[in-house]
Design brief:
Elements lengths: L4 E10 L4 E11 L2 E12 L1 H15 L5 E6 L2 H8 L2 H7 L13 H12 L2 E6 L7 H16 L10 H16 L4 E6 L7 H16 L2 E5 L3 H6 L2 E4 L41 H10 L4 E6 L1 H12 L4 E5 L15 H22 L2 E6 L6 H9 L4 E3 L7 H13 L5 E6 L11 E4 L2 E4 L2 H13 L3 E5 L11 H19 L5 E6 L2 E6 H4 L11 H8 L9
Helix pairs in contact: 1-4, 7-15, 11-12, 13-14
The structure holds 6-O-phosphono-beta-D-fructofuranose.
6-O-phosphono-beta-D-fructofuranose binds next to strand 15.
Length: about 525
């Protein structure tokens, strides 16, 4: 005999938290509709949410299949995101190490779910879901009755109304977007995740599924629903709550991740399949040039994509600014300020190496903001004679120190950029110490080099990056809502717009040596280590 299937809606309410509370549930079983409710004198909203689920599950016999709908992320996530398993492993302690509250009700729920097959479904509350709204009414009526009142209603009218509401609810399948962060991390990623999740849920009732660790999570189906709670308190946090990876390419996927020598496998079909499993209508990829190129390849396979540009390098041509850049420049500027005082005290030539592979935006911006005497960028290969000339010119004026700001991708004219070899992998870096050594040889002045490295990618985003990331995230949701896929959001002047993804992944935005910004730096005496 087929197992019986139940459709359950639950909700809890409280007058004051803690205070008198109530709970309500609607149970649909084949042709019949049951309403149950109850109250407690001094309780909390969370307890009432749990109590409603406990009472409703008690109502259905063992062996049943249940679809339990609740607007409580607390209740639903607990089961869907594996919190309970973690609590049980950690002796009922939550991720902050605190004792889990309402252990008595959670224990009852665990017992009840052992004998029933329960699917937990999060519905949007605030009166947007008819049956959730009815549960809320039942809960409130129960508080008003001020006792453990129980209401049973099987009238034909009520039943007809529920059937019609249920049909509306079932027809209204929530739209879902997928979300991942790929490539090197940068400040502002969490701000954009928050903007997408909140913008989608609050305005359009769209759910967000976050894939962990960039494209790796997409291939391996490592994902979870992101709700309001998941993105609370992350606006000012560096890094990405989703994790990221700049080496997992679904089209050339290497199991083991770190082992570059392994032969890659094309796992793009798995990635597409996983999007289908989650019922995802479109994928939002937050990334730099590499991740957006992968996103573009998926769009060619028919996956609807929306790109959001991020990189501290600011080298994507389709947007005036990427978020992360301003924070990296701020960190580099603060470092140059600090180096300045020690350079001045010791009469040294201090070299500060900043990030920037193919484009010198960070070096130019932080170099100008920090008053660098010499700025070296990949766009303008340098010559030592020009560097020495500037240092000597300063000495003659009585300025016994100099500051050089160099992008990691800068290199001497006629030579190659400087790489460090680690195993089979070559990474840019080391031009700063090289310049410092040459200066000691050529000028007999003392010189020191500092490589800022990943410091520039860490920490809290600046207010500018937080706002830009939020604007990008909300715009991405607008595009999704309108079904406007295979576009990348961008900043043009002061306006947020979008460009076709295909256009967005072409080329690299580099510093124009004849630009007004470079001319301004020259006008205040900055040298670029070459004839200009
Ligand atoms: O693209 C951003 C960036 O920070 C570059 O400036 C830098 O060269 C590179 O990433 C470093 O990558 P990784 O974190 O893999 O060393």
């Amino acid at each position: 005999m087929a197992e019986k299937e139940y459709m359950i809606y639950t909700d809890g309410a409280c007058s004051g938290n803690p205070g008198p509370g109530g709970w309500g549930a609607v149970i649909l079983d084949g042709d019949s509709v049951q309403e149950i409710s109850g109250s407690a004198d001094e309780t909390t909203n969370q307890r009432m949410e749990l109590q409603a689920a406990v009472e409703a599950l008690r109502f259905v016999p063992s062996g049943s299949k249940v679809k339990l709908h609740s607007d409580s992320a607390y209740l639903v996530n607990c089961f869907n995101q594996g919190w309970i398993k973690r609590w049980l492993r950690n002796g009922w302690r939550n991720s902050k190490g605190n004792q889990v509250e309402n252990q008595d009700l959670w224990t009852q729920l665990i017992e009840l779910t052992e004998t029933k097959e329960v699917e937990w479904i999060k519905v949007k509350g605030h009166s947007t879901d008819q049956l959730n709204k009815r549960c809320d009414q039942l809960a409130r009526e129960a508080i008003d009755a001020n006792g453990n009142s129980r209401v049973d209603d099987n009238s034909e009218d009520a039943e007809a109304e529920y059937r019609s509401n249920l049909a509306k609810n079932q027809g209204r399948q929530m739209r879902r977007l997928g979300l991942l962060t790929g490539g090197g991390d940068c400040p502002g990623l969490n701000a954009v995740i928050r903007a997408v999740v909140k913008g989608a849920a609050y305005n359009y009732d769209i759910e967000s599924i976050g894939f962990n660790n960039g494209f790796k999570g997409l291939v391996e189906n490592d994902a979870a629903l992101l709700d309001d709670y998941a993105v609370s308190g992350i606006l000012n946090r560096g890094g990405t709550i989703l994790g990221t990876s700049n080496r997992d390419n679904p089209f050339d996927f290497r199991p083991g991740g770190f082992n570059y020598r392994e032969t890659g496998v094309d796992r793009s079909a798995d990635a597409v399949e996983n999007l289908k499993k989650w019922d995802i209508e479109g994928l939002v990829v937050i990334g730099g040039d590499g991740s957006l190129l992968l996103a573009h390849r998926f769009s060619e396979l028919g996956v609807p994509i929306i790109g959001i540009p991020k990189t501290i390098d600011n080298d994507l041509p389709a947007t005036d600014i990427t978020f992360g850049y301003d924070s990296a420049v701020t960190t580099a500027t603060e470092a140059i300020d600090k180096i300045h005082t020690t350079a001045e005290s010791h009469h040294r030539v201090m070299v500060v190496e900043v990030m920037g592979r193919y484009a010198g935006w960070i070096a130019l911006q932080a170099g100008m903001a920090g008053g660098g005497d010499i700025i070296l960028i990949p766009e303008l290969p340098f010559e030592y004679s020009y560097i020495v000339e500037k240092i000597m010119e300063r000495r003659q004026k009585g300025k016994k120190f100099s500051i050089i700001v160099v992008a990691e991708g800068a290199y001497p004219a006629g030579e190659e950029p400087i790489y460090q070899q680690k195993g089979d992998v070559k990474r840019l870096g080391g031009v700063g110490p090289l310049i410092s050594r040459e200066i000691e040889k050529l000028t007999e002045m003392e010189s020191r080099a500092t490589i800022l490295g990943h410091l520039q990618r860490g920490g809290s985003p600046t207010s500018y990056d937080r706002v830009l990331a939020t604007r990008f995230g909300v715009k991405a949701v607008e595009l999704f809502k309108d079904g406007c896929f295979n576009e990348m959001v961008c900043l043009r002047g002061s306006r947020i717009k979008s460009v076709p993804l295909e256009e967005a992944v072409q080329g690299t935005k580099r510093v124009d040596p004849s630009s007004e910004q470079v001319r301004t730096a020259l006008a205040v005496g900055t040298s670029f280590g070459c004839p200009l």
